[in-house]
Automatic annotation (TrEMBL):
Oxidoreductase keyword on record: no
Cofactor(s) the protein needs: pyridoxal 5'-phosphate
Xref: PANTHER family: L-THREONINE ALDOLASE, L-THREONINE ALDOLASE-RELATED
Lineage: Bacteria, Bacillati, Actinomycetota, Actinomycetes, Kitasatosporales
Organism of origin: Streptomyces coeruleorubidus
Protein name as catalogued: Threonine aldolase
């Protein structure tokens, strides 16, 4: 459909003209040998952007998170992870398959946090008892996708890091949309990431690069992660082709994320005016809007088919929710049109 309004994900963003130009002109080498100058520049900038000593370019956020888990947690250990987290739900159980790591899902609270009492309950009463798998890592997600793009507070992150340190284990942050969190709160990404021993963030979501994610942490951690990347098939040769787009993403695309947040707020406010749609505009802080269809005779599947027939694509998100994600490919007029389409569909079904 020529004029499709795409709201399934910010992964549908296309590279900018500046990115395409940079990709065609990138100076290249062999990244497996550490000799791609453009990839090296990206990794240096990426590490600096989140205040870590080193970083490694990965093909995807899934691989970056998996590499982090495999480095941090020994075989037979546990990773404590939210039961609504992307790592637990959407990354194919990779840590168990590849690393013999046990996932222990922790209840996720509405604000995306994991209660310290629930985390504490995952530690065995006697760590010397050989019956128990021992926790080796805590994972948090910021912003939190399935909680509607919620940003974890600095106070909570500091409290979590103190808890983890007290229990002798590190914290990994799935910061796929960390720059959305930074823009929404005015807190630098470096300050947010300071509460984690390692962090993953995506270049290919709101930042609009065509491919790539970054894993950042201490230098020895990243050295081990490079070995894991190679083992997983992520060793790349002339990686500078897409690293060039990542450089553009980090130098020119972060501040404009505020526009995506404004579009999301516009969408939530518009949907709140539609009878038969249940949405809380006050809960929308970044670029993700979650809502429920409450109109009689209109279940989620029928709703999604109906809006798509009119040129609007959204996603089913579990727990009876629909997800809409704003991004660079959407204008204010697109958002207004989306609200009108939803209103028409609900009205016709009533």
């Amino acid at each position: 459909m020529a004029d499709l309004i795409e709201m399934r994900s910010d992964t549908f963003t296309l590279p900018t003209e500046q990115m395409v130009s940079a990709m065609t002109q990138a100076v290249l080498g062999d990244d497996v040998y550490g000799e791609d100058p453009t990839a090296n520049r990206l990794e240096e900038l990426a590490a600096k952007s989140v205040g870590k000593p080193a970083a490694c370019l990965m093909p995807s956020g899934t691989m970056a998170n998996l590499a982090a888990l495999l480095v941090h947690v020994p075989r037979g250990g546990k990773v404590l992870v939210g039961n609504e987290s992307d790592i637990y739900l959407y990354e194919a159980g990779g840590a168990s398959v590849c690393g013999g790591i046990v996932y222990e899902p922790i209840p996720t609270r509405p604000d995306g946090t994991l209660a310290l009492d629930d985390l504490a309950a995952a530690f065995p009463p006697d760590p010397d008892d050989p019956q128990f798998a021992l926790p080796g890592l805590i994972c948090v997600e910021n912003t939190h996708n399935r909680m509607g793009g919620r940003v974890l507070s600095q106070a909570y992150l500091a409290e979590l890091k103190r808890f983890a340190t007290g229990h002798g284990i590190p914290v990994h942050m799935d910061g796929a949309r960390i720059f959305n969190a930074a823009v929404a709160t005015g807190v630098a990404a470096e300050q947010i990431a300071a509460h984690a021993d390692s962090i993953q963030f995506c270049l290919s979501k709101g930042l609009s690069a065509p491919i790539g994610s970054i894993l950042a942490g201490e230098a020895d951690f990243i050295e081990k992660a490079r070995r894991i990347r190679k083992m997983l098939g992520g060793g790349m040769r002339q990686a500078g082709v897409f690293a060039a787009a990542g450089l553009v993403a980090l130098t020119s695309m972060i501040d404009r994320l505020a526009e995506d947040h404004q579009r999301a707020a516009q969408l939530a406010a518009g949907l709140a005016e539609v009878d038969g749609i249940d949405v809380d505009p006050s809960s929308v802080t970044t670029n993700i809007v979650l809502f429920r269809v409450t109109a009689n005779g209109l279940d989620d599947d029928r709703f999604l088919r109906a809006v798509e027939q009119r040129g609007l694509v959204m996603g089913e998100f579990g727990h009876g929710r629909i997800r809409a994600v704003t991004h660079r490919g959407l204008s204010s007029a697109d958002v207004s049109a989306a609200v009108a389409i939803v209103a028409d569909v609900v009205r016709e079904a009533s």
